[in-house]
Structure formats: C-alpha cells, structure tokens
Amino acid sequence: MPDARIHITAALLATFALSPAYPMTSMQQQQDSAISAHAMIPKRQTAVRPAKPASHRLVIQVNQNDPAVMNLALNNATNVLDYYRKRGEEADVEIVAFGPGLHMLRKDTTPVADRIHAMTDIAFPNKVRFAACGVTKEGMEKKEGKPLELLPEASMVPSGVVRMMELQEKGWSYVRP
User: Fold this and answer.
1) Is the CB of residue 136 less than 8 Å from the CB of residue 158?
2) 136: burial class by Cβ within 10 Å (0-12, 13-18, 19+)?
3) What is the pLDDT of residue 29?
4) pLDDT score for 55
5) Partner residues linked to 62 by β-bridges
6) What's the pLDDT at 122?
7) pTM above threshold 0.85
8) Low-confidence ranges of the chain (pLDDT < 70)
9) Residue 131: which of 108, 109, 162 has the closest Cα?
C-alpha cells in the first residue's frame, strides 16, 4: 500500500503547488479542480498505423428497362474497377436495380446476363455487387402471377431506393447512367 500513498501524496502536492496565491471564487475553484483532476489522468497511447490505400465506393442506379442504360452501368462499373486496380487501390461497386430496371437482374428478361456473370472475374481483387429491390420484385410477381427468379449474382435488398440512400449516408458516391 505504500505505493498508493506516494501517488496520493504526489497528487495532493501537485494540486497545492498549482493553487493560486489569491482567493478564488467557487466557480474558479470548480474549474481549477476539474483541470487538476484531468491533468492527473494518464493519456492513452495510440498506435501509429501505416497509411492504407483509400477505399473508393460507388453505387450505380439502374431504374430503366433499357439495355443501353444497363450496359452503360456495367461500363461505368468496369471503368471504375479497372482504374483503381491499376493504381493499386481498393474499390467497391454496387449496382442497385429497382423499378423497370429490375429486368437487368431477372433471369428470364435480362439482356446483359453474360456481362454480369463475367463481372466478378473482371472486378477481382475489388468487389462488385448487384442488389435487387424486394419491393419491385414483389410487385412484379403479383402483377405477373408467378415467382421471379433472379440471376445468381443478385442479392435481394428490402428496397432499392433505401439501399442507395443508406450507402450514400455511409459516404458512397452515386452515379445514375
């Protein structure tokens, strides 16, 4: 216990040594006590980490049943992934299809299935994802009276618009081809 007494004694001596020689108001005493107590708390050491390459993140909207728009979205994704791969930097691209654009990810109606199948290989070591709007899929299934099958590369999100909004809130850049 002698070590604890030494620390307490040192803290008290430091407090008295830092005390002003003139009387203080109660507000000044409170501020001074807070400052003194804060000064005695040891500062946490933070490790210095080497700089990591910047991570670039892009969300691309597809909301039209137009092969030209779908191909432009895939071209944009490919160009971004190629650009950052050549620079040795990380990149993430997510294409979100909703409304009439969901046809891009439907197995029975997509005009760009071959390009989507090839995108995973093209993207490596970076990432490309395809998000299908659950609200749109549900509406199409109800209207067509049958369940819809999506491409294996597609993942279902509850709402395409909400997905884009949440990604943008996390700092993702947004492109609409």
Assistant:
1) no
2) buried
3) 52
4) 86
5) 97
6) 79
7) no
8) 1-54
9) 162
User: What angle separates helix 113-123 from helix 67-86, to the nearest 10 degrees?
Assistant: 10
- For residue 157, give the amino acid letter: V
CA–centroid distance for 63 within its chain: 22
| Residues written for the chain | 177
Determine contact, residues 134/157, Cβ cutoff 8 Å. Answer: yes
CB atoms within 10 A of CB 101: 23
Q: Is the peptide bond before 125 cis (omega within 30 degrees of 0)?
A: yes
Which residue reads 């002003």 in tokens?
Answer: 20
Give Cα 5 to chain centroid, integer Å.
50
DSSP 100: G
Cα of 155 vs its chain's centroid, Å:
18
- For residues 123, 171, 97, 135, the Cα torsion angle rounded to the nearest 10 degrees is 140
Report pLDDT digits (tens) over 114-143.
Answer: 999 999 887 877 899 999 999 999 999 999
